[in-house]
Amino acid sequence: MEADREDKRDDDVANQVVATDIVITEVQDGVVISMPEGNEEPQTIKEIPRVRFDSNMSAGAEEIADTISSLNSVLPKERLPSRLMSTVVERYSSFDASNVETLISGGFHRYLGKYKSVGREYNLTFPTPEIHFENLSYTVWLSSESPTAKSSIGGYFKSIVAPWRKLRTVKKVILHPMSGVIRPGSMTLILANPGAGKSTFLKALAGKLTSRNGRRSLKGNISYSGLAAEEITISKLVGLVDQLDNHFATLTVRETIQFADRCLNGAPERQPEKLREVARLRTDVILHILGLTKCADTCVGDALLRGVSGGERKRVTIGEMVVGGQSVFLCDEISTGLDSAATFDIVKSMKDWSRTLGGSAVIALLQPPPEVVELFDDVLILSEGRLVFHGPRVEMLPYFNKLGFECPEHVDPAEFAVEVASGLGGRFLKTQGIQAGFKPPRQAIQFEDAFASSPLYRQTVSLIEEKRRNKLKSENEDKLQSIEHLICKNSGTPLYKSGFIETTSLLLERQKKIWLRDRALVLGKLVEAILIGLLLGIIYLNVQSKIYLRMLFFVIAIFQRQAWQQITIAFQVRNIFYKQRSRNFFRTLSYTTAESIVQIPLNVAVSLSLSVIFYFMSGLSKTGSTFVVFYIIIICFQHAITAYFTLLAAISPTITIAQALASLSVSFFLLFSGNIILPQLIPDYWVWMFWFNPVAWALRAKMTMTYWRNPQYNLMRMVAFPIYAFIFGSAFYKLTEGTSAAVNSHVGLMYNTLDFIGVINLMTVLDTISGERTVFYRERMSNYYGPLPYSLSLFIAEFPYLILTSFLFMNVEYWMIGWEANAPSFFLYWFVFYLHISNCTSVGQFMAVLMPNIKVASVAVGALSVFFNLFSGFLMPHIQMRDFYGWIRYLVITNYSLESLVSIEMGQCDTGSPTAHGCTIVNVAKAGAAPAYQIQLKQFLHNNYGFEYSYVWRNIGILIGILIFLQVAIFLTLRFVSHLKR
After folding, report:
1. 485: which residues sit within 8 A by CB, 6+ positions away?
2. How far apart are CA 604 and CA 582, in angstroms?
3. To which H or E segment does residue 602 belong?
4. CA 812, 818, 819: angle at the middle one, nearest 5?
């Protein structure tokens, strides 16, 4: 009855307001201007106090509350009820959605009131819940192994191969039991030192933490207006803003927020008719509120690509969340890397959002200045995972004063509170006014106990217990029950706003923009394909049919190596994908489908550029139908192998492990393709790999379309780690050199060893150096150090790693294969191998600092690896190279490395050591009916490859010279080349 009387009174008041015929027009110079019907002159109703706001921020948020307050002053009685206020705004506001200026200018409150009214009608807005956390705690059991050992490749493989093994664990309490309330429409500041548990606390409120596998334990209750997390869809109500701003650098601010808008709200055409035109301008409204209008068409940028400022980029991150309509935002250290002015602007924008839309914000900041702290309503302080204070901001300093700590005027309150709570606030102890016998707390657990016994905490706990016990029987019962109803109702809506086809179309449009704007990558791939096609065509120009298989094998290997670059590309966008998928932007299937489709045009162009040039220059079948089939096989293989490397990037925790898995896969694929080792010679326990292998299928299909001949080569190769060396060594244990095929197998083994170990070092170093390069640019500008000590540090840091890696690898491979069993040959072989991988690592470092970004560097490394392979002296022996291009081999590292390794093991045959491998008699089988003959191994290498042992020391000197040259080139590049476009 009371509610009915109140509604009737509101209707009477509304009619009274209608009778006055007042129309709010605009806010000018701090005065509300109104126009009664029929009057020509505006009337001043009430002067509004001027409120300071940043020039980059929208004034709309300030106008809303003040203008509505002035409207309330028209009535001589009490303030208008909120429901009546909505009625008045709805009656005297109308959407003019011609553009964002007409929608917002001079009346943003009208837009807000109308949108709220229609939103309630169509259930488009989400309520702001009151969040209770009671006895919330979080415990993890960590491995006693060091983080470095656990994240290493060996540790990762142990977890896969032997998941049942028991590891010693230690218990670590991240959050100790704590209770509190996050009030609707409030701004809460979290203060804590790094590692105190604030990120874990925010994740718990966002529903991102769970108890799992007995390794993690989340206890306590978290409720949202009385409802447990299982009863609602938290992602629709709560948004978590990460510390890092993960965005596509080449997209503009408008495109980034518009994409989020379309994903989270659907197409404007699907909105209710009353809001259809307004929905088209939703992105512009968000840009206006966050002060991003002036930079809306500027690319977001990143550490290297010049774009918006750090503060504006953080607002873009917030805009991605605000556009989704969540009513609670949890922000984790959003001030990282920003100055105090930018931090103030961002928090001020969140304050405006909270005041305007009634949302709640919980923000963790490190050392916020006083003007930022004053924007908050409540403060929550953590220390060592313990709750030491949670209450109104104005009560924070008086509370610590009662504990015996006084904040001087020259000390920031936030700094004072954190320092005291961490046990380091001895300098703030009061010298007088402390009760006799009272001992101020000095440790986190003592502060926790002190707060637990405070009236403020007891009041909070009593409130939680009372609402739980009485089923929310409080003065706001109707409001809270309404919130419950809305939360549950909205939880039944679809998880994704758009269908599969619509979402996939959105992703296709976005991915197309990203690829087209990365001109360096696209042009790099096309130029690489054309150059490699010309190079292959020239080298294999009208080549004899007996090496067709080897030639086609290498073409497939090139496409496989190009697909390897996908790992780097996938890792660059993986964090963005994780962020958007967790917030229900799109389905995973939509993303993978769009990513696959958008790569088709570029893959078709790249493969066509390479295939046409190579195919017809090399003298393969001249018929058009045969080429079409050849090209279709190339396209299918390219997509299959690209998808496989993308899978490796998805399942690997780090890019280093992904590169290692890729190298292992490449080794298996090529080894069991049917070219390096003939199918009939593959051991029974490896036959399955031959039939599973996509490279083998592609090679068989291409040879069927061209020409088939079984070569006399039985090759074997190794990968970067001793365990892989053991696997391959066990398959070709103690291989002799008694036949020409066996000799070619040994040479092929050394070639593959140089190839894949070199490629591993080329690829894995790119990510490390590219990440450090940005730091170098920043610290060099601050005059921390110059390019010379930095370039030297790159070499020195790699030195022990390369020494150890090369020794472990060679120690397994060398003795299992059964090469020269003497110390001089072993250590000389090891030294040459070390020089080779050192040069490959330096080439990777050089490409990382020379190229504009890691994706272009990956393309460049892929092209260089083709040169390293073609001119190594194995795929095309030196003696068969034509003079007009043969000189290129003198610029290639593998030319000197392969000749030295082969000569050390099989090119020595002095008269004083007749048992040396170079003195072995080799049986050489001739093709057709020609009789076989015998020749000394040393002479066989000279006749077929042009290798000479006398060139070993010359080659070692050249390799050392190349290493020095590369280090100088790295220094000069760091000194004179900068890709920092900021």
Report:
1. none
2. 33
3. helix 600-617
4. 100
Beta strands in 183-315 (DSSP E): 187-191, 216-224, 227-228, 238-241
- The two tokens of residue 398 are 């008086």
Alpha-carbon span 882 to 871, nearest angstrom: 12
The bridge status of strand 169-182 relative to strand 31-34 is: unpaired
What is the rounded CA–CA span in Å between residue 836 and residue 894? 7
Is the separation of the CB atoms in 866 and 892 below 8 Å? no
Amino acid sitting at position 166: K
Q: What angle do CA 111, 583, 511 make, to 5 degrees?
A: 95
Three-class DSSP category at 171: strand
Per-residue pLDDT tens digits for 302-351: 877 788 887 788 888 888 877 877 788 888 888 776 778 878 888 887 88
Strand, coil or helix: 224: strand
DSSP state of 212: B
Q: How many CA atoms lie within 13 A of 742 on its CB side?
A: 19
Q: Are 865 and 762 in contact (CB under 8 A)?
A: yes
Q: Is the pLDDT of residue 157 over 70?
A: no
Answer whether 838's CB lies under 8 Å from 797's CB: no
3-class SS at 437?
Answer: coil
Buried b (16+ CB within 10 A) or exposed e, 875-902: bbebeebeeeeeeebeebbbbbbbbbbb
At 794, the amino acid letter reads L
- The three-class DSSP label of residue 282 is helix
Distance CA 609, CA 526 (A): 7
Query: Cα dist. 367→199, 414, 416, 422 in Å?
Result: 16, 6, 10, 14
The bridge status of strand 24-28 relative to strand 31-34 is: antiparallel
CB 974 within 8 A of CB 791: yes
Cα within 13 Å of Cα(821), Cβ side? 6
Q: For 334-353, give one letter per residue: b (16+ CB within 10 A) or e.
A: bbeebeeebbbbbbbbbbbb
Look at residues 893, 74, 946 and name the one whose alpha carbon lies nearest to residue 92. 74
Name the amino acid, one letter, at 220.
G
The single-letter DSSP state of residue 236 is: G
Residue 47's H or E segment, with its range, is: strand 43-47
Nearest residue to 363 via CA among 199, 247, 220, 246:
199
Of all residues in the chain, what percent carry a pLDDT higher than 70? 68
Q: Is 38 helix (H, G, I), strand (E, B) or coil?
A: coil
Confidence of residue 49 (pLDDT cuts 50, 70, 90): very low
- Mean pLDDT lowest for which of 261-265, 755-759, 943-947? 755-759
Q: Which residues contact 238 (CB under 8 A, 6 or more apart)?
A: 205, 206, 207, 224, 326, 328, 329, 330
Q: How far is 735 from 729, CA to CA, in rounded Å? A: 9
**383-426 pLDDT, tens digit each:** 888 999 999 999 988 888 888 888 888 888 888 888 888 888 77
Strand, helix or coil for residue 173: strand
912-940 core/surface letters (b: 16 or more CB in 10 A; e: else): eeeebbbbbebebeeeeeeeeeebebbeb
pLDDT-derived band of residue 831, with 50, 70 and 90 as boundaries? Answer: very high
- Which 3 state secondary structure label does DSSP give 506? helix
Residues 6+ apart with CB under 8 A from 25: 33, 34, 35, 42, 106, 107
| Stated pTM of the model | 0.65
- Mind listing the pLDDT tens digit for each residue in 633-678? 888 878 888 888 888 888 887 777 777 777 777 766 665 555 544 4
> What span, in angstroms and rounded, lies between the C-alpha atoms of 778 and 795?
21
Domain limits, the chain: 2-122, 243-324, 498-711, 742-907+943-977
Contact 86/115 with Cβ under 8 angstroms?
no
